Amino acid sequence: MNLPTIRVSDEVDQEIRRQGGFGDTHDTVLRRVLGLDKKGASPTGNKRAPHGSVTGTKAYRPIILKALLTARNKAMHAAAVLDEVDKQMRGSFTPYDTEATSSGAVRWQNKTQWAREELVQEGMLEPVAVAGRGVWKLTAKGVTEAQKL
Length: 149
Hints:
Layout: H1 10-19, H2 26-33, H3 57-70, E1 75-77, H4 78-89, H5 107-121, H6 128-131, E2 135-137, H7 140-148
Antiparallel strand pairs: 1-2
């Protein structure tokens, strides 16, 4: 496929980058903004998924805890945890889990991030200030809970 070159001002370029997420290209951002991105469309055309149609955060928590329990230093980079969740949940996701949210994030990944936040609030994962940016790390309480699974 031969793609045309378009020129945009620095201001437009910065806005495209601001609206993009990790892994987005100028093309994917523009497709989303212009309504051309059908793969991220809701199965029903709704902006929000109906109640009960999305896998809840509780489903992701044991996968996170088990993955970190087996990791070196009981810690992993966020991307590696998301890969593990994807491996274990693939085939179990609802159609809504795999669609993009209004921010452009994949819903199951967003829910996994929220599950992480719940685990931090409950003292089972270290906060960013302790673990480091992009690193998920079990606390002693988290190790104890993960060993029960």
